[in-house]
Amino acid sequence: MGVDPGLTRCGFAVVQMQPNRSGESLHVEVKGTSSDEDLAVRILAIQRAAEQLLDEFAPDVLAIERVFSSANAPTAIATAQASGVVIAAAAARGIPVAWHTPSEVKAAVTDDGRADKDAVARMVARILNLPGLPKPVDATDAYAVAICHGWRSGVGAKFNMTAATATHQGARTALQKAAAQRSTGMTAAQRAWQDAERRAARR
Amino acid sequence: MGVDPGLTRCGFAVVQMQPNRSGESLHVEVKGTSSDEDLAVRILAIQRAAEQLLDEFAPDVLAIERVFSSANAPTAIATAQASGVVIAAAAARGIPVAWHTPSEVKAAVTDDGRADKDAVARMVARILNLPGLPKPVDATDAYAVAICHGWRSGVGAKFNMTAATATHQGARTALQKAAAQRSTGMTAAQRAWQDAERRAARR
DNA sequence: CCCATTATAATGAGGT
DNA sequence: ACCTCATTTGCTTCAC
DNA sequence: GTGAAGCAACGGTTCA
DNA sequence: TGAACCGTATAATGGG
């Protein structure tokens, strides 16, 4: 499941990635909250939305865009608050969480770290065999994150994500450690995977 | 209940404010999470802690420090994520949430916007008749936020907080609006209350 | 293959 | 409902 | 009383 | 276990 966190609009996309680099869209949803409501209520609404989807689709992993702040603290904070409840909801269900920066996402789907939104939308549509471009903008991003993670984590490649079992411990720890020990003699895909996991683990 | 949000250490303080400007400490707790754990798990732990306390003490209001970011985005974001789950937990229980800036808090309890930590700790201890200074530093801050809100919201004064009932709508909206309509002819306490609420409502 | 540089967002309000 | 555009912290304190 | 300026924190690691 | 100190973003792109 990919998530594009935001206070006013939070995008969720459930995708089934295939070994052959394509994917199937199982669900898309953009939860909107109006500024008329109390902030706490808005955050709660997002949490509820996330919970519902996680329960309904029980994804193997939750991929979410890392929050970035450049000269707009308030919005970044609000976004972070929203992302907080989402990742907590995942953790409560033993679902591993992976973070990806916007650049990673764009680069993953378009092979160009600085591709405009349209390019991303088009690629997403192609990869998922969508009839048209994803309707709400935030849906596109949610899709993209999901795809990005699928790619980088190696879903459909030689490696698969192992679902987290314990509530107490990060799921990927074991795999990570194993990979880290043999830091040499890996294919490009393996390196990419390791790097991605290592990075994701830092947060 | 006052909250000092943080990822590694999150302080919670339950206080019963008295009409005579003093208060009684009902509970203090600092939830700590180690960086060994997965971030999602850490956030979840904080959420759980908040939930437990909210259920146990059913406070009239949750007062929390507003997150501030200047030259440290990552930290601010983590803090915000933590605060997110806390306020969501409150919202889920229909408990109104109020935000206060660090300056407000310090100024409220020490009459000096830029008082050092010790001064705050001492004042808190005095106000609450504590045997000694609050043990974990974060506890002090949690206490202070609670006291600050009690003061500024007028708990123990002529006005009391009304608990939120609906999940869907901000609790204070009605009160706020009523107060805003008659913006004149109020006592200092009334003005303070109105201002505090108005400010709190913005976020 | 390694190093330096640089680009990066989201909200709220208002109009269509 | 979608899209476009502009904005980008807030409070205490001190000086006047 | 009004207006202008300055300042605010936390996480990770290491040591006692 | 608790206290003090230091740093404060990241990753893709392009060039050496």
From TrEMBL, chains A, B:
It comes from the Bacteria. One of its GO terms (cellular component) is cytoplasm. Mg(2+) 2 binds at residue 65. It holds the Pfam family RuvC. It is found in: Cytoplasm. One of its GO terms (biological process) is DNA repair. The active site is at residues 4, 65, 138. Binds 2 Mg(2+) ion per subunit. Mg(2+) 1 binds at residues 4, 138. It catalyses: Endonucleolytic cleavage at a junction such as a reciprocal single-stranded crossover between two homologous DNA duplexes (Holliday junction). SUPFAM superfamilies: Ribonuclease H-like. InterPro entries: RNaseH-like_sf, RNaseH_sf, X-over_junc_endoDNase_RuvC. Its EC number is 3.1.21.10. One of its GO terms (molecular function) is crossover junction DNA endonuclease activity. Keywords: Cytoplasm, DNA damage, DNA recombination, DNA repair, DNA-binding, Endonuclease, Hydrolase, Magnesium, Metal-binding, Nuclease. Its cofactor is Mg(2+). Homodimer which binds Holliday junction (HJ) DNA. The HJ becomes 2-fold symmetrical on binding to RuvC with unstacked arms; it has a different conformation from HJ DNA in complex with RuvA. In the full resolvosome a probable DNA-RuvA(4)-RuvB(12)-RuvC(2) complex forms which resolves the HJ. Belongs to the RuvC family. NCBIfam families: ruvC. The RuvA-RuvB-RuvC complex processes Holliday junction (HJ) DNA during genetic recombination and DNA repair. Endonuclease that resolves HJ intermediates. Cleaves cruciform DNA by making single-stranded nicks across the HJ at symmetrical positions within the homologous arms, yielding a 5'-phosphate and a 3'-hydroxyl group; requires a central core of homology in the junction. The consensus cleavage sequence is 5'-(A/T)TT(C/G)-3'. Cleavage occurs on the 3'-side of the TT dinucleotide at the point of strand exchange. This is Crossover junction endodeoxyribonuclease RuvC. It comes from Nesterenkonia alkaliphila. The lineage of its organism: Bacteria, Bacillati, Actinomycetota, Actinomycetes, Micrococcales.
